[in-house]
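S1.2 Input.
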Amino acid sequence: MALIKPEKIKSKPTVHLSILRKDNGFTAFFGYDLNKRFAIEVGYNDLGKSTQSVSDDGGLDAKNKVKVITVAGVIKSDPIANNLVFFIKGGLARIDHDEAISGASSLNTSVKTTNLFYGLGASYEFSKDLAIRAAYEVYGKDDGLSEVNSEESKPDRLDTKALTISCVKKF
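S1.3 Output.
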């Protein structure tokens, strides 16, 4: 049995991983105020695209698209300091995660997951029917893979969240 001294190993890593997660998405939602403090909402959130690249002998690119549909109850505060209203929301989120892998091998996979979700935010009401709103929403993890060596054909697991700024028009 021979021992190899660490200084004798001259190989260099040949794998490079780069991740681009920067993309813009959009949100559209419809709500109904049941009273001044409680509302219900249905929303659609396109969280954009991300790309991961692995550079090795074969090379792979993975492109992900994530969309979320939500149904929520919203609890609003009394107006504070010139029409500033805080809110919290909670409900169900349906996450649709698509992944396309290309390069040395090709694979298209998709996973759909339903989670409980929550969010919080504030809106500034310019008038009775026009407001600007900022919200942070946490949709939870999808049912994608968390194990690198899995044999299943699913996208990698995502922990989906969104920070949105919206213009609200009431009818």
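S1.4 Remarks. The radius of gyration is 22 Å.
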